[in-house]
Amino acid sequence: MKITQVVCQILRIDRVEAKTASSQDSVLVRIRTDTGLEGIGEADSSPEVVKAIVDAPFSHNVACGLRELLLGENPLETDRLWQKLYRSTMYYGRSSVTITAMAAVDMALWDLKGKHYGEPIHRLLGGKRHERIKAYASILFGRDGAETAEIGRRWTDAGYQAVKFGWEPMGQSEALDLELVRGAREGIGDATLLVDAGCVWDARTALRRAQAFADSNIEWLEEPLLPDDIDGYCWLKDRSPVPIASGEEECGRQAFRPWIDRRALDVYQVDLARNGFTDATYIRQRVEEIGARLCNHCYTSPVTVAASLHWLCTCRDAFLFEDCVEDSPLRHELTVEKVQAEDGWITVPDRPGLGITLDEDFVAAHLVSQSGD
Question: Residue 242 gets which letter from DSSP?
């Protein structure tokens, strides 16, 4: 089996708002073979930048676009291909957006591998440990405590036993921060509450917030500091009365390694659309070695939701699953299958590969750019 086409598609919904939500556009990588099989992958990044990395022509041996490196290759050789892409992009890659583009490719290759062998990806990763996982509704904060409480009630009424609120407008003032979290607790009652600060404080301020939020019995405080402040995270984790979570910005094993080596977090959040299965498997093994917990990060489309389920179900302690509930057509209509929690639990797909099928009518209606036909 050989790769014959690498198609990169950018999709975008009609109305893109100024908010921190990556469910408004998407970049898909579709890898096709001479056997007629197709694998699908997605990157959570700037779609146009990812497309440029896929499309770039050969410059020299360590500065080449991904498509040219993949054509003619056997898609089943996922680890070798990851290493080939990493080495052949060293002059402009090794981190950040190049790794996210590689993650989309890697996801598509594993989807192809599963379809070739007639097995779900989780079986190829070593086997699932969980048939279903408790899901938390992942949503942005309201403008104030009252609106946040209303949002919380909506999702607990929908059957979720856990809700995470995140990002804006947290960080504007101490009074508003406390109001938002108290409103969230009021809205969801006894359900599990998670707080995503969105990288807004210094370490000492974050500690004060963690101490104050502890009164609201939060399950974790996510991304209180800037993502490069590993020293700050180590300092905070050792003093915080609540668990500290982070990792969604990290791309690949090289990015995660210092966080794991220094035991900087209680919960390591891994986004399959920024890491791919090959590196996410390495990260899982390392995090489990140090006795910390793992969770997925996912705020895009059902493609990444399915990928996250295949990976997280192989983790020893898959205690929660991030289920984006943004009211976006891209989140809910991109695939034929509905990949969303029911009554607060989300079920792991068991069909070959990712176990999802793109709705080609939706793709055609929201396609803004394509290359690689």
Answer: S
What would the pLDDT profile of 158-213 be if each residue is shown by its tens digit?
Answer: 999 999 999 999 999 999 999 999 999 999 999 999 999 999 999 999 999 999 99
- CA-nearest of 55, 105, 60 to 80 is 105
Sole residue written with tokens 């983790």: 315
Q: How far apart are the first and last CA of the chain?
A: 19
Q: How far apart are CA 1 and CA 71, in angstroms?
A: 11
CATH 3.30.70.120 for the 123-347 domain, yes or no: no
How many CA atoms lie less than 13 Å away from 331 in the CB half-sphere? 17
Write the single-letter amino acid at 61: N
CA atoms within 13 A on the CB side of 275: 30
Q: What is the pLDDT of residues 31-74, one digit of tens each?
A: 999 999 999 999 999 999 999 999 999 999 999 999 999 999 99
DSSP-derived secondary structure letter, 345: E
Compute how many other C-beta atoms are within 10 angstroms of the C-beta atom of residue 159: 13
Spell out the domain ranges in the chain.
Answer: 3-118+360-371, 123-347
Q: How many CA atoms lie within 13 A of 165 on its CB side?
A: 34
Gyration radius from the chain CA atoms: 20
Domain 3-118+360-371, CATH class in plain words: alpha beta
Q: What is the rounded CA–CA span in Å between residue 222 and residue 210?
A: 10
Helix (H) / strand (E) element for 331: namely helix 329-333
CA distances (Å), origin 342, targets 133, 134, 208, 282: 11, 10, 36, 30
- Residue 229 contacts by C-beta under 8 Å, 6 or more apart in sequence? 203
